[in-house]
Amino acid sequence: MFESLDPLLHSELRLAIMSILLSVEEADFVYLKEQTKATSGNLSVQIDKLNEAGYIDVERGFVGKRTRTVCKITPVGVKAFEEYVEALKTYLNLPK
Amino acid sequence: MEDKQLNEKESLELIAQMIRNTQQRLEKVHAIPFLIFGYITVITSIIVWYLQKTTPNSLWNLLWLAIPIVGGITVFALFYNKRPRIRTFVDKAVDYVWWVCGGTVMVATFIPNLWKFVPVLFTVSLLISLGTTLTGLITKVRILVISGIIGIAAALAIPFVKGLDSILFFAAIFIVMMVIPGHILYWKGRK
Q1: Which of B8, B87, B92 sits opposite A92 (nearest CB)?
Q2: A67 - beta bridge partners?
Q3: Do B14 and A12 touch (CB under 8 A)?
Q4: DSSP B162
Q5: Mutation test of the interface with chain B: which of A19, A31, A68, choosing the one with the most B Cβ atoms within 10 A?
Q6: C-alpha B29, offset from chain centre
Q7: B183-187 mean pLDDT
Q8: ipTM surpassing 0.85, yes or no?
Q9: Sheet holding A56-63: strands in order across?
Q10: Which three-class secondary structure state does DSSP give residue B111?
Q11: Alpha-carbon distance B20 to B46, whole Å?
């Protein structure tokens, strides 16, 4: 039986952001932009969506005079990611 | 990268690729704190040794406070507002090691009369050597592991060094354990 895939995670950019944040403690906007090669506008929109869903925490601050956005995955985000991977396995007939 | 839908296989490939890219980042150990605390400890040790030798007075021991005060302020001033773009669990683990080792050093040196039972220079050099070795092991930086182990061995010898010479021995430990690896890390970081 196929399990439903979380629509919030089943998009290229949002999944990439979550994958990066899963393997680090925190990452800033510039790092995420470099790794995903997304445009600032698009990345910003997707970060907001993940933040609204409670999957990531976003901290906006300043370094000197420049703004700096730092993202961290939340426990809710980790659980959603794990469930997403488990659901993917059912589609690909991978052992759970 | 766009906001497009992926098929299941693409999703798994993307997850693997992003995690792989992040793990390829080489862990960097900042050389500057090693150099600052190394040099301040060596200079303070030599000054205290000289003053104690020429004009013996226990008040000269207050000069040891220069290490946490001058070192702490200098490191804070250099790294304030320089938060790294990415912070991994390894970075966090190294921070914890130094909070525990540095914190224990501070507490141990302020416990009244502890030095009557355990030589302070032994406690300090052993804890900082442990911090250096653990930092090297966590970050896989061999020079820190080697210098830290030498530091541990030398720290265990401090109780056997009598009189003011133990201060010079303490300074020598910090040259091997912090100053030399600090310069090597700094040189490698600039390449």
Answers
A1: B8
A2: A62
A3: yes
A4: -
A5: A19
A6: 10
A7: 91
A8: no
A9: A56-63, A66-73, A26-28, B86-87
A10: coil
A11: 48
| Angle, CA B72 vertex, CA B68 and CA B77 arms, to 5° | 160
Q: What average pLDDT score do residues B3-17 get?
A: 80
Q: How far apart are the first and last CA of chain A?
A: 13
Size of interface A-B (CB pairs under 8 A): 88
> pTM here?
0.78
Q: Which residues of A touch B14 (CB under 8 A)?
A: 12, 15-16, 19
Please list, in sequence order, all residues whose beta carbon lies within 8 angstroms of the beta carbon of residue B153, skipping any fewer than 6 positions away. none
Per residue in B82-138, pLDDT (tens digit) is 777 788 888 889 999 999 999 999 888 888 777 778 888 999 999 999 999 999 999
As a residue count, chain B comes to 191
**Segment holding A24, helix H or strand E:** none
Q: Closest Cα of chain B to A55: distance in Å?
A: 16
- pLDDT tens digit sequence for B17-71: 888 777 666 556 678 899 999 999 999 999 999 999 999 888 898 899 999 999 9
- Between positions 46 and 75 of A, the ones with CB within 8 A of B are 46, 63-64, 68, 70
Which of these, A27, A9, A24, A41, lies nearest to A71 by C-alpha position?
A: A27
Note whether A11 contacts B: Cβ–Cβ < 8 A: yes
Instruction: Judge residue B4's burial from the number of C-beta atoms within 10 Å of its C-beta, 0-12 exposed, 13-18 middle, 19 or more buried.
Output: exposed
Cβ B41 vs Cβ B70: under 8 Å = no
Q: Are A46 and A17 in contact (CB under 8 A)?
A: yes
Token pair, residue B124, equals: 């300090």
Contacts of A15 in chain B (CB under 8 A): 6, 11, 14-15
